[in-house]
User: What shape does this take?
Amino acid sequence: MQKLKKDVLKILDQLGFGIAARKVYVFLLMLPRNLFVYPFCVRAYHRQIDCMDLGEAKRIFYWPGSFGWNVVLFQRPQQMALACGRQGQVTLYEVTGRTDPHVTDYFEQAPGVWLVNRENWTARSVLMRRIRASGVPHYVTMYSTNLEFSRRQLTADMKKGDRLLYEYVDHLDASISKTRVLPPVLTDRFNWVAQHDEIPVVATADALWQDIYDHRGERNLALIPNGVDHMHFHPLAELGDEAKANLGQIRHFVCYYGALASWIDYDLLRYAAEQMPDVDFVLIGQLYDDSFRTSGVEALANIHYLGPIEYYKLPATAGASAVFTIPFRCGDLAQATSPIKLFEYMAMNRPIVTSSMAECRKYRSVMVAEDKEQFVTLLRKALGMSEQSDADYFADLRREALENTWDARAEAMDAFLTKYEAGAKTKG
Assistant: This one.
């Protein structure tokens, strides 16, 4: 009993008490419905699945997890689902009652995109059986950051006929998983994938691609960075009443949006704000941890934290900026990051200044600073730029925004998996 208690406490420490408590709470909350309600809805579930036309899809992706759809961090999972849906591929995307309370079983979010309540055991089970019976190539899309699915679970699914698509989206780091130590489920799954080159892997950054390559070569390995929904961010919305209320009297400012977390270089922000007291710095996003509050930068008169803004409303406020920035700390995490915001910044047609990040150096329109002094110098330069005096630079911005859309990423994914499927068919 004592050993069992120690094992349980170890697991809770690795996952974080919040995650474990949430799992237990949801399990108990949903248990009566899972036992006495949902099992009697099987016919209704089959009728809804018939509407999905799974047999007509070019390919099916099943995205497991509790991240949610209608959340402030509207990022790669949702964007790739939408883009793939526009190209005849279907994504079945798991949500929870907490993130998307309107989804009790299945919900058509967009063409080719269906939300699935993962807490409804019967609905999920019926859907998985129908997917496997469809005869269409289908993949369980597993993000490298997913804390919930072990190697053993994935192996069991693969024995049932599911294919695994591993997306290596971030350097494995405890700061992302919000745990004191890196959960073993992440490293165990990565090591397993790194030893099996028959599993297709998509990496979002050069450093991540190289990591997989060093383990198993380039077979079934693709580099597909993040991208942008160009029409959502360009043309820019007018500065409406809500954006005016958000900004108050702030004008001609430097903007960062995204998670405010330990990977932000708050010392760099402080230095820039102190060296440029005549310039306002606007920060938008969720407080991912307590690093922003403990940094003390909020006390500076020219640093303004606006809180999170919904994705659909973000361009109206962020687009009013004069310059965009990404002030990440130097380190493995920053060097292996393909920032989604980078391409969104491009689409909003504003100069971009970042700290020293490998992925940012790929683009002519991004001014990369190697130290704090150069960061300030580049910010001042960017604040003085205009389309009239710097036409070539703004032409690069527009070109690179259009080259890095989510539709282009979905096309790359389609080409990669088409090649993979042809190889698997020949081998079979």
